[in-house]
Amino acid sequence: MSTHGTATAPLRYLRTTEAAKYLGLAPGTLDKLRVTGGGPTYAKLGRVAVYELADLDAWVAERKRPHTSAA
Prior knowledge:
By secondary structure, this protein is of the alpha+beta class. The chain has helices at residues 16-23, 27-36, 53-62; strands at residues 13-15, 43-45, 48-52. The protein has one domain (13-62). 39% of the residues lie in helices and 15% in strands. Strands 1-3-2 form a 3-stranded antiparallel β-sheet. α1 (16-23) crosses α2 (27-36).
């Protein structure tokens, strides 16, 4: 519980392997996207890249399309 009286869920961070599994991707895909750009937002903790669940969900939401020919 926060000091303001409202309950907040703790942030959950996933390492690359866990994040890839959550998204249904290969870990190498996230590795490549970190280099080339276009992937979900991540943070570096030392040598480890971590992803917040909310950022993964937002990245997927940005890619929703109504049909296959939509940009």
